[in-house]
Specification:
This protein is an alpha/beta fold. The protein has 18 helices and 25 strands. The protein binds glutamine.
Length: 538
């Protein structure tokens, strides 16, 4: 049977529960155990698919088509295990499921309540779809004390009791702040947070203290005493210089060892930290740099393109260069400024996006990349904009547009009303916004002698999608005649998946999101090749 590790947070959010969970997963895997990571989110949206990236950061997409919290991206990048639909749930989804069941009369006339019906559904999620794993790490979103997270905390308390406490471990991550004015480290917020957790029935087994400096022994002792946790299990995590250092830092603090000790398990292998050391070294010590412009709508919020930023950075590892991300707001990008703003840029990337705002700036930047031989990568919306730019300026189809933002023009990008995925019809024109896109992993066939085939080194690829609109295949001949090749297609040949330009050093558009599959220990070939081209661009 799997052992369960529950990770809660205290004092403030954004302390890095996701990164801590992901690092722990790597360390346990490296010691020879099979690990799976899960996230329970307390908000009421049924999934994060309809949330603005401004508010909540990127929506991460899994192979099986779930739109999930961006923490699942961290999990995948560190553990290399592909997440699934069954790895992320929200309060909204839980209530949705319970209420649907209630409407069907499945509760046999009983009063439906938070305890036991909501908590039972949470427990079902925690246990669901797992068999061979040695550890399941479940992160609870938000912090202890939030009204929203109460049912989750109650559910994990019950769960630990159900499976016997020795099979469940509670980790609590808190902030230990330093006060400059009094030159002191404060343990009180941690004490309060643990008190809060204990008041709802959970005694943490391990406390991870996030701090900007090392926590002296006497303070650790204090935390141990007041929070009733053995001193060995009061673990510090001092701010790291790069996230890739986190597994190294948790190993030094013996987090994985404490976890195994708790479960009375032995290490099967010794931990291999060399890949992380190598990456950290590249990030901290590489002098050579390339500037990549990301031109999009959500550049103000750092997490909005999380996987993309990561994938570009990974591309740098393969080429031993540091990738500087220059974020440019497409709405503010004036035609007259393009030349000056893109002066020191070696590669231009247009990420995924929705809606009309900012499209003008994107199209102009693409034109600039095309004409000036600057390496260009268009992702999803970025590829669609590249098609529009080419149609307008090279095919002389001045009314070329996407029906997403202009219903009257010539739809070189348009909706196909029905998709058939796994036997299930997905309607692109459905009035419901949630879950109505082409989502998840789909195959694409790559054309012989194309640049993409050379990059991937194979002819059939699988990539993750998240979009409603498609490039209209009927224009293919027109485009190809002028040198824009549809070099990747869906296996039935109906949907353009990849485009590339002949007579350009590196110009590729992809309808999918390769960034979701890039991992620091195995960078995605498209990003490695893009960064290589940028490195060679003078
Ligand atoms: N808005 C476009 C579509 O729905 C592109 C989506 C995206 O970039 N992920 O097709």
């Amino acid at each position: 049977m799997a052992r369960y590790i529950f990770v809660t947070g205290g004092v403030v959010s954004s302390l890095g529960k996701g990164l801590s969970s992901a690092s722990l997963a790597y360390l346990l895997q490296s010691r020879g155990y099979k690990v799976r990571l899960r996230k329970l989110d307390p908000y009421l949206n049924v999934d994060p698919g309809t949330m603005s990236p401004f508010q909540h950061g990127e929506v991460f997409v899994t192979d099986d088509g779930a739109e999930t919290d961006l923490d699942l991206g961290h999990y995948e990048r560190f553990s290399q295990v592909s997440a699934k639909k069954s790895d992320n749930i929200t309060t909204g989804k839980i209530y949705n499921d319970v209420l649907k069941k209630e409407r069907k009369g499945k509760y046999l006339g009983k009063t439906v309540q938070v305890i036991p019906h909501i908590t039972d559904r949470i427990k079902e999620f925690i246990k669901n779809d797992s068999s061979k794993e040695d550890f399941i790490i479940c992160e609870i979103g938000g912090i202890v004390g939030d009204i929203e997270s109460l049912p989750f905390v109650e559910a994990i308390r019950q769960f630990a009791n159900d499976i016997k406490k020795k099979n469940a471990l509670f980790i609590h991550l808190t902030l230990v702040p330093y006060l400059k004015s009094s030159d002191e480290i404060k343990t009180k917020p941690t004490q309060h947070s643990v008190k809060e957790l204990r008041s709802i029935g959970i005694q943490p087994d391990i406390i991870i203290c996030r701090s900007d400096r090392s926590i002296p022994l006497e303070h650790r002792k204090k935390i141990s005493l007041f929070c009733n946790v053995h001193i060995n299990n009061v673990i510090e995590t001092v701010d790291v210089r790069t996230i890739y250092e986190a597994p190294i830092s948790f190993f030094k603090e013996k987090l994985d060892k404490r976890v195994l000790d708790y479960f009375k398990l032995r290490s099967k292998k010794s931990v291999n930290l060399s890949p992380w050391k190598k990456i950290t070294n590249i990030i901290l010590n590489t002098k050579k740099q390339v500037n990549i412009a990301i031109i999009g709508k959500y550049v103000d919020l750092k997490d909005a393109y999380k996987s993309l930023d990561e994938a570009l950075t990974h591309g740098g590892f393969d080429n031993k260069v540091k990738v500087n991300l220059v974020r440019i707001d497409s709405e503010q990008l004036k035609i007259s400024e393009i030349k000056s703003k893109l002066k020191n840029i070696s590669g231009i990337l247009i990420p995924g996006g929705f809606g009309k705002r900012g499209t003008k700036g994107k199209i102009e930047a693409i034109k600039f990349a095309r004409k000036n031989n600057i390496p260009f990568l268009g992702i999803c919306y970025g590829m669609q904009m590249a098609i529009i730019e080419f149609a307008r300026n090279k095919l002389n189809l001045k009314r070329a547009t996407s029906s997403e933002f202009d219903k009257k023009g010539l739809p070189v990008i348009g909706l196909i009303n029905e998709w058939n995925k796994d036997g299930k019809i997905i309607k692109g024109t459905d009035k419901n916004l949630g879950g109505t896109m082409r989502l998840g992993s789909y195959d694409a066939k790559l054309q012989d002698h194309s640049l993409v085939k050379k990059i991937y080194g194979k002819s059939l690829i699988k990539e993750r999608h998240r979009h409603r609109y498609e490039v209209n295949i009927n224009f293919r001949e027109k485009f190809e005649k002028k040198g824009l090749i549809f070099s990747g297609l869906s296996p039935d040949g109906k949907l353009p998946e990849i485009i590339e330009l002949n007579n350009h050093p590196w110009f590729i558009g992809v309808q999918f999101h390769p960034e979701f599959k890039s991992r620091p220990l195995s960078p995605h070939p498209l990003f490695s090749s893009f960064i290589k081209a940028a490195k060679n661009h003078k």
